[in-house]
Amino acid sequence: MPDTFALFRRSLGDYLLRTGQIGTAEAAARSSPDGLAEAWGWHGSWMEHLAATAAEDWIAEDAGGRIVGWAQSVERDGLFELTFFFVDPELRTHGIGRGLLERAFPLGRGESRAISATLDPAAVSLYLRSGVHYAATTIDVLGEPRVSDVATDLAIRRVEPGTEDDAEEAIVALEREILGHGRRADTRFLLADRPAWLASRGGAVVGMAFGTSASDSSGPIAALDPGDVPALMATVENDAAARGVKEVGFTIPMVNRAALDHALGRHLPIDTFYTFVLSSDDRMRLDRWVQTQPSFII
Q: Cis peptide leading into 294, omega within 30 of 0?
């Protein structure tokens, strides 16, 4: 895992450098021992969780045994999703990516298929031949959390992990209604990783939100009615402000107008990092969904 993580950081750093989002010095710092250790502190628990629950996990090695490519996928309630796909920047045109994708994300597998993808043209070209098509573009908005009050008739209550068995079921039911699949394994991980809330109306659960973790990552946030999403985003931001979190962020599909209007109304800056949601299923209602951070899964 240390070698695959280093490849992930080096390849992503190269993409950010090529697209002008970071400079040469920052790209080098990302792959330095200190940079890798810092990044592992943010993402290590996620990497271990996804490795432990992976459906496919493949690496490519050169003749000397050095890892030069990595692809991983998970299977959740009929969804087959590519989580990681990275090739050594110096070997991008050697067919390694195609070979990895054929093994980690084989055609015909899964009732539905999905990828949260960077905008790298070569990778997107491969993805679009693997049974998925464009669903949405996501943007990150982030800034210092500030307390706000969003008028709502929702009853929003904090979920206490380990004491409410029905919370997991309620969240999975919401995911199935909105996305077409539930993410039970990931919900269990998230409930132990970050604060969570359930929102009810008339006694029925109609929304949920996961707040900022120790690594300042948030989400997912979802509601059956898109108009309820801002109140849940405000709940996350208010909690972050109360806990002294320095920065709060949301990864928002741009079809989610209610979430975007709320974030822009809060003057949260838009980051330069964009991603595509690619899917085989047009039933996903991303207009009422805020993605999980980090963007390893939808």
A: yes
